[in-house]
Design brief:
The complex is a heterodimer of chains A (339) and B (448).
Chain A lengths: L2 H32 L6 H11 L3 H18 L1 H10 L1 H20 L6 H31 L13 H4 L2 H25 L2 H32 L9 H22 L3 H23 L2 E3 L9 E2 L7 H28 L12
Antiparallel strand pairs in A: 1-2
Chain B lengths: L2 H16 L2 H22 L2 H35 L1 H35 L6 H30 L4 E4 L2 E4 L2 H5 L4 H29 L4 H37 L1 H7 L6 E2 L3 E9 L6 E9 L2 H7 L5 E2 L14 H29 L7 H10 L2 H15 L4 E3 L3 E2 L10 H32 L12
Antiparallel strand pairs in B: 1-2, 3-6, 4-5, 7-8
Helix pairs in contact in B: 1-3, 1-14, 2-3, 2-5, 2-7, 3-4, 3-8, 3-14, 4-5, 5-7, 7-8, 7-12, 7-13, 8-9, 8-11, 11-13
The chains are: A mainly alpha (339), B mainly alpha (448).
């Protein structure tokens, strides 16, 4: 494959890794954030048990995306991670607390102890979607990348209204997606409540998506890839997915609604990538400073090696991930290991 | 304050903390593969009980390892952006491979092993812990590929100030990769064994689940003894002679050789210092074996070994820290062999339960392999200075230039506080799990 083809392939693969991450860790982060609304300790235990066997594997998608960005587009990895420094460390703090809360929570028979780790789980799950959204918002809008390929902005500048809007959108998406998964994994009163909440969060998702799409038209009109037929495909996917999600919620098919919401997530992330292509990080200081797949990739050899690694590895990963979801299918309880 | 120093300090704190946990997980996972296999095949409740108890400790250790590991995946970008740009064409691939081939395996199958006991067959349950152990080993392999490439870079050329891959296999199988991997793996097995031995000895001292604890102690003593031997010979020796060949400046410093010489002596003890009169470095209070360093490095007593005087001062690591950490690590390695040999002797003499002082000693020795791991890592990484990519990229040229002192202090203080808390909670929970003791088998079994 020529270098150019590989660069395009890696741009697409990178999008796929982020979509995989958003769909998979999306629902377990959503359930974590939902646990903040749970009625009692018992319910919070059910929230946690619903995702206990799978959350860690889901989070590996983030590590894979990070490693892949490092390997395929090193200057982008370097500029974004050093540029969004404070935001990344806040994210790491959240993910650390969230991760250990699973291992620590049930080790001591004390309500205060469990309450503390429930908070770590809840806040640690609430923060990441907002931070991801803020990062995505800033990238869509463009950040001050200078001639050296370095981010020349500040943390406070990242917290602009547009980016915070995208942060809330991502939170609404994960909450919808998470409440659907919770509805699948629970029964009785909690199941009914999760279903009801999924409808409400769906409304927030739809409203915020429309608002942020309009806002994007004013803030970064060049992100509308209307000349690209794929843009229209994913637009139909987004709208159709949103419609299918709420219809299936109404018809009481949480599993199908969950699939529809996954399709919607994939479509909406894809629209953003279509609008960006071939840019990975647009610069506000001049288009010539944009970090792009063509100008800022690794060598042809490295991209080829990485492609082989992914083509061997990811199908196997997908196969046993599906198997594990099947092993742990069915409803969860609050007691024991939940299964 | 010096920004390079702060970035290095943060890297040292974060890797140092993270590196406490994976060696325990690796060692414990492989021991559990064995324990669960015996428990499954024989149906012995005592063996199964060991499996249940230590799988809880594995879960706990693994969780803290994973949580602190995420930081490592991102820290190259946040704090070492210039390094990331220089090495990205080579260094990113092993990190991505680690995630794809190892992290997914470990985390997914650990879920099945810990929570799926009643959902999958016995075969699949055992297979899960086997896959976890393989996953942790692959993880060690890929991260050590990346680390070894920094030490002995290969398979690339520098074009426009960036390392560009010319051969993936040469980059992966660089000259320090195999000795480092096998030495680290044996160290991990010792770490897991001593962790288990300390837990078992403590249970025996507290008189909890005596049968289970005694058997666990025996398993860990055998494992510890075997790998204590292998860690010294062949893997330790192999690794040291590879350093002598590939990184002579590092070898000179860790052996306290300040002058190039034939029949180079091995420093058994010494304190690196500077001679007041000549202002040259020398070893105080030295105990040396003539010709031994030459022989160990090359197999020839008469071989010439380069001293630190053969290198420009600007290319040398600090003299003190790598020397002390190396010698202390070797001393600990010998101690592990002695302790486990003593334990096996007591077992043979049927004294294991009665020699309470020995049990106390094994409890105290539990964390020592963790210290040895840290010392080995300090030897390797401080010994690599002043380079991040040996002979190609200097540490001072590797940091993120957009990250300021305020940001560094924020992240350093935040991570240090979180890690201090995690360590405290980890030890507390560890104590809680152990104080509950193992599930005692209903019917007493005869354990030889």
């Amino acid at each position: 494959m020529t270098l150019e083809v590989l660069q395009i392939v890696w741009f697409i693969l990178y999008a796929i890794l982020l979509i995989g991450y958003a769909i998979l860790d999306g629902f377990d982060l959503g359930i974590g954030a939902l646990s903040l609304f749970a009625k009692d300790e018992n319910e919070r235990a059910i929230h946690m048990n619903a995702i206990a066997p799978v959350w860690d594997g889901n989070e590996v998608w983030l590590l894979t995306a990070g490693g892949a960005l490092f390997a395929a587009f090193p200057p982008v990895y370097a500029a974004v991670f050093s540029g969004f420094y404070i935001a990344f460390y806040l994210l790491l703090a959240a993910l650390i607390f969230r991760g250990v809360s699973f291992a620590f929570r049930n080790q001591l028979d004390s309500p205060r102890w469990r309450r503390s780790w429930d908070w770590a789980f809840g806040i640690g799950s609430l923060l990441p979607p907002i931070l991801y959204g803020v990062a995505v918002g800033n990238i869509l809008r463009g950040v001050p990348i200078d001639a050296a390929g370095e981010h020349a902005g500040t943390f406070m500048a990242l917290l602009n209204p547009y980016a915070i809007g995208v942060g809330l959108l991502v939170l609404a998406i994960f909450l919808t997606h998470g409440s659907l998964f919770l509805a699948i994994k629970t029964e009785g009163e909690l199941h009914d409540r999760a279903k009801k909440m999924s409808g409400r969060f769906w409304m927030a998702w739809t409203a915020l998506w429309i608002i942020m799409t309009i806002a994007t038209f004013f803030v970064a009109p060049e992100r509308f890839g209307i000349a690209n037929p794929l843009f229209w495909v994913f637009l139909v996917g987004s709208l159709g997915g949103l419609a299918a999600t709420i219809i299936l919620i109404g018809m009481d098919h949480p599993i199908k609604a969950f699939v529809a919401s996954a399709v919607t997530i994939a479509s909406q992330v894809s629209i953003a990538f279509v609008g960006l292509f071939p840019t990975l990080v647009p610069s506000t200081l001049g288009r010539e400073y944009d970090l792009t797949a063509f100008a800022h990739s690794s060598s042809q050899k490295t991209l080829t090696v990485m492609l082989v690694i992914v083509l061997i590895g990811m199908p196997v990963v997908l196969a046993y991930t599906i198997w594990v979801f099947r092993v742990f299918r069915g409803k969860v309880k609050a007691t024991g290991d939940g299964y | 304050m010096d920004l390079v120093f702060l970035a290095r300090l943060q890297f040292a704190v974060t890797v140092g903390f993270h590196f406490l946990f994976p060696p325990i997980s690796i060692g414990l996972a492989w021991i559990l593969v064995f324990v669960e296999a015996v428990g499954w095949r024989t149906g012995s409740e005592t063996w199964q009980s060991i499996g249940k108890l230590f799988s809880k400790l594995l879960a706990l250790t693994f969780a803290v390892g994973v949580a602190s590991g995420i930081v490592m995946e991102f820290q190259f970008g946040t704090n070492w952006a210039s390094y990331s740009r220089f090495v990205g064409d080579i260094f990113g691939a092993p990190l991505a491979a680690e995630a794809i081939f190892a992290f997914f395996l470990e985390s997914t199958f650990l879920g099945v092993y810990l929570l799926g006991r009643n959902r999958v067959s016995k075969e699949v349950h055992w297979f899960s812990i086997l896959v976890v152990a393989i996953g942790t080993t692959l993880s060690a392999f890929w991260i050590l590929v990346a680390n070894s490439w920094q030490q002995t870079p290969a398979g690339f050329e520098v074009i426009n100030g960036r390392a560009v891959l010319t051969s993936f296999t040469e980059a992966v199988f660089n000259s320090s990769m195999w000795p480092r991997f096998f030495h680290q793996m044996t160290a991990a097995m010792i770490t897991g064994a001593f962790f288990m031995a300390a837990a078992a000895a403590w249970l025996l001292l507290k008189n909890k689940g005596k049968e289970v604890a005694l058997l666990a102690l025996k398993v860990s003593l055998v494992t510890g003894f075997i790998f204590a031997i292998i860690s010294i010979f062949p893997t330790g020796h192999w690794h040291a002679s590879q350093v002598a060949r590939d990184q002579p400046a590092k070898f000179a410093v860790i052996e306290g050789l300040y002058e190039t010489q034939t029949k180079a002596p091995l420093a058994v003890f010494g304190i690196p210092t500077v001679d007041k009169e000549t202002e040259k470095p020398r070893l105080a209070a030295e105990i040396r074996i003539p010709g031994m360093a030459s022989w160990l490095a090359t197999g020839d007593v008469n071989a010439e070994i380069k001293g630190t005087d053969a290198f420009p001062a600007s290319d040398l690591p600090p003299f003190g820290l790598p020397f002390f950490s190396f010698h202390l690590m070797v001393a600990l390695g010998v101690a592990f062999l002695g302790l486990t040999a003593l334990g096996l002797l007591f077992w043979k003499l049927n004294l294991l339960e009665r020699a309470r002082w020995f049990l106390v000693l094994m409890v105290i020795a539990g964390p020592l392999p963790l210290i040895a791991n840290q010392l080995g890592w300090i030897t390797a990484e401080v010994g690599r200075q002043p380079w991040t990519v040996y002979n190609y990229l200097r540490t001072a040229d590797s940091v993120s230039i957009t990250v300021g002192g305020g940001e560094l202090i924020f992240s350093l203080v935040m991570l240090s506080s979180i890690y201090a808390l995690l360590l405290f909670v980890y030890l507390f929970v560890l104590g809680r799990i152990l104080s509950k003791g193992p599930e005692v088998p209903q019917t007493a079994e005869v354990v030889s």
